[in-house]
Amino acid sequence: MEVHSGLTSKMTPAFAESGLSEVDFETLIRLARSPERQLRMSDLAAQTSLSTSGVTRVVDRLEREDLVRRVACASDRRASYATLTDAGLARLQAVLPRHLEDIETWFTGLLTPTQLETLLDTLRIIRDVVRPCATAGADVPTQVTPARS
């Protein structure tokens, strides 16, 4: 908790300067890395720590700022997609250099390449157990959890 809290306090100023909250940034980055810069609303909720109503509120707010738009699913009337707009991508690209600098300064730059690789592999294993839907709807390779002896 101390590491999470400390890193959050170091990362939040860059988001605030760009007019984004931490959850706004997470939503935009998840959409940016998804195929066609979009995710089903249910997949976006599954990838974040938000409930379905919580992700709806975030998307509503981002839609008012023209950073995201909602698109109806052609094959399922009940579903809709959150799609990153060009303005949303531009806002994300504006904050990313500072965010990456913060990550290097306060996280990855503190570790040797071997330590970082081990940490990231370990975090993926834990993520896949505690948040199995963290990559729902994303086009990413499935992580294989090693067998326990």
UniProtKB/TrEMBL annotation:
Top-level taxonomic group: Bacteria
One GO term (biological process): response to stress
Any Pfam family hit: MarR_2
GO terms assigned for molecular function: DNA-binding transcription factor activity
Domain called HTH marR-type: residue spans: 1-128
PANTHER family the record matches: MARR FAMILY REGULATORY PROTEIN, TRANSCRIPTIONAL REGULATOR, MARR FAMILY
Protein name listed in UniProt: MarR family transcriptional regulator
